RNA sequence: GGCGCGUUCGUCUAGAGGCCUAGGACGGUUGGUUCUCAACCAACAAAUCACCGGUUCGAAUCCGGUACGCGCUACCA
């Protein structure tokens, strides 16, 4: 059996790893590792106009943060290096020329103006916008002459105009396209870079990729890739097109409507295990029906053919719930380090340690620590609402007299409330607002134990 | 417009002809617990399985059509 090798092929054209890419990466990784194979990162940086500085590093970094390690890639190399398409240019040109030799590709000298005019005309005539094949009729010798003379050119795929091209998709079954509707796609651009189509096919073959698992937006261009494999005489890999993640309005997940960068979620205090678990639930479910599971558990039972074909909506709300579940699962010792690092060591770790037990079941993200526990570190600058002085006075008096432990304080407050004829819960609430500035937060008495009598009384002494 | 892919509670999904008066999870509502908020427990609401037709003794499940959504239609990926 041929070894299983999968890959993700991101373009460094975004600020970070897109959540959709993270999803694709997860599935690719799981498939590879389930079969003891390799997972590879290949950077498809052939669009020089859209490159973003630092994008590649952040993509790799985010993947590492998520805990999806790669066996080969631009940063660590591997047996099929380089893993950056911009460093493999010679190869594409060589292969494209081979295609020309066999009549499966041709040189094209059309200007973008002509192409534009052509498309406009086609559109007006309700014709599908496709290259009209003008340069296909240029004799080979003449084309060579023009190139030698320094004329700019691209190479186009010579798609047969009869027949159909079919491929099998592991998730969706057989999919066919009529050749006459497939465009003579540019495969090598005038700047010498390949387009995606040539790039993927050549590299996937060269890198011995066994399974091409990518987003469904590629279904329409897959027949071009199949044709390329056929023209080169290469074996076609296994295809599986994953559903794309969507915004709540069902459009393709986009930064306009959702945070889409992995780093963004990290910054908001999401845990990588929760992210991975949630992503795993997109278009797939654990056979046992459980919702909370690790990547390792997923690997044991995962089967590509069980993936749903419907494009799922990425639901922030459920992710938050799941993150809360994971937060409560992690050990306190690790939790406090996470908080410590998350807030860039802004809060002393000893204090975090003391306070954390009161907060674990109240937090859904690491970031929420601040709004929930900020008062431990800083006196309130403002109050969420005006205070009711009567019950507050009762509370202050009770606390002033009380010994500083939970039971004593509780008894003091309840006794004083009874005596003064006010509701104990009102007293608790006014004390809470006066001391923390907020109406919601961790249990009051436990918090006061940590805060200490001196600090507490100082906060309320002005009333 | 053309081509392609899809369509089960608001959302993620279970479901592979009888086990489905369609199950679970998130979210929602109500109640319990409680010093607030959570957490926890209990309960409830929520899908005429997009629609129409066909196959079958029987269809969410198979077939056909329609509608709707999404994707692609670049010297972007």
TrEMBL record:
<dbReference type="InterPro" id="IPR020058">
    <property type="entry name" value="Glu/Gln-tRNA-synth_Ib_cat-dom"/>
</dbReference>
<dbReference type="InterPro" id="IPR020751">
    <property type="entry name" value="aa-tRNA-synth_I_codon-bd_sub2"/>
</dbReference>
<dbReference type="InterPro" id="IPR045462">
    <property type="entry name" value="aa-tRNA-synth_I_cd-bd"/>
</dbReference>
<keyword id="KW-0030">Aminoacyl-tRNA synthetase</keyword>
<dbReference type="GO" id="GO:0006424">
    <property type="term" value="P:glutamyl-tRNA aminoacylation"/>
</dbReference>
<protein>
    <recommendedName>
        <fullName>Glutamate--tRNA ligase</fullName>
        <ecNumber>6.1.1.17</ecNumber>
    </recommendedName>
</protein>
<keyword id="KW-0648">Protein biosynthesis</keyword>
<comment type="function">
    <text>Catalyzes the attachment of glutamate to tRNA(Glu) in a two-step reaction: glutamate is first activated by ATP to form Glu-AMP and then transferred to the acceptor end of tRNA(Glu).</text>
</comment>
<dbReference type="InterPro" id="IPR008925">
    <property type="entry name" value="aa_tRNA-synth_I_cd-bd_sf"/>
</dbReference>
<dbReference type="GO" id="GO:0008270">
    <property type="term" value="F:zinc ion binding"/>
</dbReference>
<keyword id="KW-0436">Ligase</keyword>
<keyword id="KW-0963">Cytoplasm</keyword>
<feature type="binding site">
    <location>
        <position position="255"/>
    </location>
    <ligand>
        <name>ATP</name>
    </ligand>
</feature>
<dbReference type="Pfam" id="PF00749">
    <property type="entry name" value="tRNA-synt_1c"/>
</dbReference>
<dbReference type="Pfam" id="PF19269">
    <property type="entry name" value="Anticodon_2"/>
</dbReference>
<dbReference type="GO" id="GO:0000049">
    <property type="term" value="F:tRNA binding"/>
</dbReference>
<comment type="similarity">
    <text>Belongs to the class-I aminoacyl-tRNA synthetase family. Glutamate--tRNA ligase type 1 subfamily.</text>
</comment>
<keyword id="KW-0067">ATP-binding</keyword>
<feature type="domain" description="Glutamyl/glutaminyl-tRNA synthetase class Ib catalytic">
    <location>
        <begin position="4"/>
        <end position="321"/>
    </location>
</feature>
<feature type="short sequence motif" description="'KMSKS' region">
    <location>
        <begin position="252"/>
        <end position="256"/>
    </location>
</feature>
<feature type="domain" description="Aminoacyl-tRNA synthetase class I anticodon-binding">
    <location>
        <begin position="349"/>
        <end position="462"/>
    </location>
</feature>
<dbReference type="GO" id="GO:0005829">
    <property type="term" value="C:cytosol"/>
</dbReference>
<dbReference type="InterPro" id="IPR004527">
    <property type="entry name" value="Glu-tRNA-ligase_bac/mito"/>
</dbReference>
<dbReference type="InterPro" id="IPR049940">
    <property type="entry name" value="GluQ/Sye"/>
</dbReference>
<dbReference type="InterPro" id="IPR000924">
    <property type="entry name" value="Glu/Gln-tRNA-synth"/>
</dbReference>
<keyword id="KW-0547">Nucleotide-binding</keyword>
<dbReference type="GO" id="GO:0005524">
    <property type="term" value="F:ATP binding"/>
</dbReference>
<dbReference type="InterPro" id="IPR014729">
    <property type="entry name" value="Rossmann-like_a/b/a_fold"/>
</dbReference>
<comment type="subunit">
    <text>Monomer.</text>
</comment>
<dbReference type="InterPro" id="IPR033910">
    <property type="entry name" value="GluRS_core"/>
</dbReference>
<dbReference type="GO" id="GO:0004818">
    <property type="term" value="F:glutamate-tRNA ligase activity"/>
</dbReference>
